[in-house]
Design brief:
Chain A has 591 residues and is an alpha/beta fold. Chain A is built from 18 helices and 29 strands. Among the domains of chain A are: 134 residues, 3-Layer(aba) Sandwich (Rossmann fold); 122 residues, Roll (Luciferase, domain 3), CATH 2.30.38.10; 95 residues, GMP Synthetase, Chain A, domain 3 (2-Layer Sandwich). In chain A, 53% of the residues are buried. With 91 residues, chain B is mostly helical. Chain B starts with 5 loop residues before the first helix and ends with a helix. The chains are: A alpha/beta (591), B mainly alpha (91).
Chain lengths: 591, 91
């Protein structure tokens, strides 16, 4: 089991690698296994040393980092060598990375780019097709690297405000020595759905993700012989698992093309994977297309599912298809750095431990502390349902430039009688909690550039620490059993692994349709959430083509309704609130 | 015994996706054997499951797509022939 790594040394000196940061494991693997494959994209391998040199040249092309520059670099690239070299280049510059996604509407991407304050961006060949749309209206001068292009003059002519770099700049660049990084500096910034229509940027620090990587790499005994799947887009934090846990130990990251993603089973076999990570929906998809047959994937050692509720029946089918792999269910929100609980599947004992056919989420990672609490942040009794709150080394820094939302979600319950701190949930039953909530200190959401001065979190103040409120309802274990997932507390819904704020979709629908009432319902329902969205609009007339296009321009694909229904009199309950269960019944009846 | 020919499957797909095809300005005649529903944006990767469900419902049987590779699964000609063969095997 993992020995939990404490906060990294803070003595920044002339040697940047004295302070461990996210890139350190990759650089060590470069020294230990320079010729071994670090990455395989579309079946083509690239070695550790080669990838390092490419990233260092990217970093060098940008030149020295400006002092007044926010310490983040955007990577508008996916499923390409440029995407991964770009992330490494950001870290070599001493920056965190901000993954942008071509599947998102350009307006949304532009918003993320501007909110992150990035001045530098790395773009791959496929994503360049969207670049003009993203740049429209961006007034802050950017330095944009298009490493696939020999000639960037036309782009520079179209966008005189920005500076463009191409392949020649990379080839002629001095390789940049990694710049110093503070442990509290940002490793990456990922955006999650926000209820008021603006995505929230989650600030994950180096020490957060290093804690996560150490738990994973130790627990699964990862070595240079392993080959990891890398299915999720880089804008989804599950990608952090496959990427950084593999690189920490010299393993190979196998990234399927968008086409290979359609046939994950073929990808497992062709890429000779030993470690599988995905959202459970991928397994459901594989089963549906006949890709989960007994003993189909004998080479898999580990199968790690994360991101949404894991149905028991699919897990059993996976167990039979990959009989030599140990299956674990990981749980955690982006704010707690990918995952913070685990549960190991056991064909004999798991069925009895499931709740409503969903595999338990188990127990906290070593080092993480979990409590199951009521609305006053008092622990509920064993066997009762409450909200999961958690703290520990993986607790992120909060939402970028959004103090209100940070203070609402990162709270400081004052636990009494806790001389040694809050105990993990299994032992925490008799602890009493003072229900006064101390909001996170001011300053928690300063600009990402001001990462050096953080005294923000996890410092015990009195006997209380800052906990993140997940909004997830779980059943507190009793008698040594595992924790089980019950559902969401609020109007978030899980759609294929993404946490989506229903309120964000409804805000866009109201605006685009020009109606007062718009309701988004997750439909069809799946074990852990929904496969898509159906929209009800409180009107009997709508210009559907324009509406569809308008909505698609505002929301990522998983949040775009798959069906619109016009309903002038949307059912309401006695309090005048929209009766969502009535709408759900309408959908069920019309199935 | 009736068998379902690949042309029936093709006709079903054209009917099923008539609206998005029209939106993309593609007429039935322009849908060649090699026309890729995914690449042309007629369906997305999630839409593959809907497509499979629709085919299975229309032709009244479940079909194992495991032996079809990723390049072929969303091409009208290859998909139609695969479904035809699957139905023929069953009947």
């Amino acid at each position: 089991m993992a020995s939990f790594v404490s906060i990294p040394r803070c003595d920044l000196d002339d040697s940047p690698e004295r302070t461990r940061s996210l890139r350190s494991g990759f650089l060590q693997s470069c020294d230990r296994f320079p010729g071994r494959p670090a990455l395989e994209v579309a079946g083509k391998a690239i070695g550790y040393a080669e990838l390092r040199d490419q990233a260092a040249a990217f970093a060098g092309a940008f030149g020295a980092t400006g002092d007044d520059e926010p310490s983040l670099t955007a990577v508008f690239a996916d499923r390409s060598v440029t995407a991964y070299a770009g992330i490494l280049a950001a870290l070599f510059r001493g920056h965190g990375y901000v993954p942008l996604n071509t599947k998102y509407p350009p307006d949304r991407t532009r918003g993320m780019l501007s909110r992150s304050g990035c001045r530098c961006m790395i773009v791959d060949a496929d994503s360049e097709a969207q670049l003009d749309d993203v740049l429209a209206g961006v007034e802050t001068p950017l330095t944009i690297l298009l490493p696939h292009r020999d000639d960037v003059d036309d782009a520079a002519a179209r966008w005189p405000v920005h500076r463009f770099l191409g392949a020649r700049d990379v080839a002629g660049a001095p390789m940049l020595d990694p710049a110093p990084v503070a442990p509290d500096g940002l490793a990456y910034l990922l955006f999650t759905s926000g209820s008021t229509g603006t995505p929230k940027g989650v600030m994950v620090m180096h020490r957060n993700v290093l804690a996560f990587v150490d738990v994973m790499a130790d627990r699964y005994g990862i070595s240079e012989q392993d080959r990891f799947s890398q299915l999720p887009d880089l804008s989804f934090d599950l990608s952090v698992l496959g990427l950084w846990v593999a690189w920490e130990r010299g393993a190979c990251v196998c990234c399927p093309t968008a086409r290979q993603v359609i046939k994950p089973g073929r990808f497992i076999t062709d890429s000779r994977l030993t470690v599988w990570t995905s959202v459970p929906s991928v397994a459901v998809f594989m089963k549906r297309l006949g890709g989960l047959k007994p003993d189909q994937y004998p080479a898999l050692r580990w199968s790690l599912f994360c991101g949404e509720a894991l149905p028991l029946d699919i897990t059993q089918d996976w167990h039979s298809a990959a009989p030599n792999s140990v299956i674990e269910n990981l749980y955690g929100p982006t704010e707690l750095t990918v995952a913070c609980t685990y549960y190991r599947f056991d064909a004999e004992t798991t069925p009895a431990e499931c709740e409503r056919g969903i595999v338990p989420i188990g127990q906290a990672f070593p080092g993480m502390t979990i409590q199951v609490v009521n609305d006053d942040l008092r622990p509920v009794e064993p066997g009762e349902v409450g909200e999961l709150i958690a703290t520990g080394p993986q607790l992120s820094r909060g939402y970028l430039n959004d103090r209100v939302k940070t203070e609402a979600a990162f709270v400081k319950p004052l636990f009494r009688n806790c001389g040694t701190g809050v105990s993990p949930v299994e032992q925490g039953s008799e602890r009493s909690v003072n229900h006064r909530i101390h909001r996170r200190d001011a300053g928690a959401t300063q600009d990402a550039g001001a990462t050096q001065d953080s005294e923000m979190i996890s410092k015990p103040s009195g006997d209380g620490r800052v906990f993140y409120r997940t909004g997830d309802l779980v059943r507190r274990p009793s008698a040594g059993g595992p924790m089980t997932y019950v559902g969401r507390k609020d109007d978030q819904i899980q759609i294929l692994g993404s946490r989506v704020e229903i309120g964000e979709i409804e805000a866009v629908l109201r605006e685009q349709a020009g109606v007062d009432t718009a309701v988004a319902i997750g439909w069809p329902r799946t074990a852990g959430g929904a496969a898509g969205i159906v929209a009800f609009l409180g009107t009997d007339v709508a210009e559907m083509d324009n509406l569809g296009r308008g909505v698609e321009a505002c929301l990522p694909p998983c949040m775009v309704p798959r069906e619109y229904r016009l309903m002038p009199n949307i059912p309401r309950n006695a309090n005048g609130k929209v009766d969502r269960s009535a709408l759900l019944r309408i959908l069920e009846e019309s199935k | 015994m009736t068998t379902t020919a690949a042309t029936d499957v093709r006709a079903f797909l054209l009917e099923q996706y008539a609206e998005p095809l029209a939106r993309h300005g593609v007429s039935a005649e322009q849908v060649s054997d090699g026309f890729d529903l995914l690449r042309e944006g007629i369906i997305d990767s999630l839409g593959i499951l809907d497509m499979v469900a629709a085919i299975e419902e229309r032709f009244g049987m479940t079909i194992d797509f495991e032996n079809m590779d990723a390049e072929q699964l969303t091409r009208v000609g290859a998909l139609s022939r695969y479904v035809e063969a699957a139905i023929r095997c069953r009947t």
